[in-house]
Design a protein that fits this description.
Blueprint: E1 8-15, H1 19-32, E2 37-41, H2 45-51, H3 54-67, E3 70-75, H4 84-89, E4 94-100, E5 116-122, E6 132-134, H5 135-141, H6 163-166, E7 170-172, H7 178-197, E8 203-208, H8 217-228, E9 235-240, H9 241-250, E10 257-260, H10 262-276, E11 283-287, E12 292-296, H11 313-325, H12 329-345, H13 359-369
Parallel strand pairs: 1-2, 1-3, 3-12, 5-10, 8-9, 8-10
Antiparallel strand pairs: 4-5, 4-11, 6-7, 11-12
């Protein structure tokens, strides 16, 4: 990892649809800051196919990840090749998604002031392994013979769950491993400790569908609780997923650090972003043992591609996280303060925030707010 006194190399992968507009606008801001960083900008997603084969593009992205200290990424609809390597190839097991309201954010909440917590999403396992197949395979395996929810067995049900073999259907495998849950739980506990030192409560909240999926979701929460018990200065609590979905809206101010399995983390972080003003405001970083990359939470926004309306705030705040990761803490704070100033003034905001500014107008306003 680079520090304030060394020059870092950052790969920039703009992504697809409207995402490159947000990334390129953010790059104008970063370049205006004259940072001690070398940026290696890769093609937009649509340009990859025009310039090289899928295999060549994938290898270019992999080589960039291996060569660079980190990557700033837009988002993909599948056109941009190789992005899965950032996650599974580099084993970035913790997806950190801050949910923080700032003055000027167009929140639908009556009292958004003080919403400030971080979701840590397990980033490698759960249903995202993509292991799927025909339901008939489940019947052939004998798994359908196991007791169902509530302890009802095959012999107690008319037809004996015969639909597993007879009906057309599909399945997906949800899995966790102890080692991976433990390391993401340790990551979340250390983050809670760090925030406690900064004046936050130092509380870790964990949630999953423990009342139905006791051997997977329930196990995830049990392991998290075991890990948290080793951190005497971290308070631990857990909620069933349905109740937690309500709490995200009813009492978001009570949250500090939230640890979630992959699927719930993906869904609930979007809900959290909605409480502060939308996905255009939500940054993220994906962390492994010795490498990380940074991207906005939002998707590619194909409906506004080419219109220069996409809000680049999420990408810029992801860049703030990136600068902190690289050790450029002063520059990160400078960029964050400039973004805050633009929102506090409220004159140059994109349409999703009630303004009429273009993506590039917003970026220029941030540049103008830099010291």
């Amino acid at each position: 990892m680079a520090t304030d006194s060394t020059e870092a190399t950052v790969g920039v992968l703009p992504g697809d649809d409207a995402a490159p507009e947000a990334v390129h606008a953010s790059m104008t801001v970063l370049q205006a800051m004259e940072l001690p960083i070398t940026f290696e900008v890769l093609p937009d997603g649509a340009d990859f196919a025009a310039r090289m084969s899928r295999e060549e593009g994938t290898q270019l992205v992999i080589d960039t990840a291996e060569r660079c200290d980190t990557v700033l990424f837009g988002s993909t609809n599948g056109q941009t090749p190789g992005v899965g390597y950032f996650r599974w190839g580099k084993q970035t097991f913790a997806n950190v998604r801050p949910i923080k309201w700032r003055p000027g954010f167009r929140s639908p909440m009556a009292q958004p002031e003080g919403i400030d917590y971080i979701i840590v999403r397990e980033n490698l396992e759960d249903l995202y392994a993509g292991i799927e197949g025909d339901l008939s395979e489940v019947a052939a395996s004998g798994l359908a013979d196991r007791p169902r929810f509530g302890g009802v067995s095959r012999t107690q049900v008319p037809g004996g769950f015969s639909h597993f073999a007879e009906a057309e259907g599909r399945y997906a495998i949800k899995y966790f491993t102890r080692a991976n849950v433990e390391r993401v739980a340790h990551f979340a506990c250390r983050l809670a400790q760090q925030r406690k030192a900064e004046g936050y409560p130092g509380k870790l909240t964990c949630s999953a569908k423990t009342n139905v999926l006791s051997r997977t979701d329930g196990w995830f929460v049990e392991i998290a609780a075991e890990v948290a018990s080793g951190y005497s200065d971290v308070e631990f609590e857990s909620f069933i997923a349905d109740d937690f979905a309500r709490r995200l809206v009813a009492s978001p101010h009570d949250l500090d650090v939230v640890l979630l399995p992959n699927l719930y983390g993906d869904i609930f972080s979007d809900e959290g972003a909605g409480t502060i003003g939308g996905l255009g405001l939500a940054p993220s970083g994906c962390f492994g043992e010795d490498w990380a990359y940074f991207e906005s939470v939002h998707g590619t926004a194909p409906d506004i591609a080419g219109m220069h309306r996409i809000n680049p705030t999420a990408t810029m705040l992801s860049a703030v996280m990136m600068l902190h990761h690289l050790g450029h803490h002063d520059q990160a704070s400078t960029l964050e303060s400039a973004i805050d100033a633009v929102y506090a003034e409220g004159r140059t905001l994109t349409p999703d925030q009630g303004g009429s500014a273009s993506t590039e107008d917003f970026a220029q306003a941030v540049i103008d707010a830099l010291p």
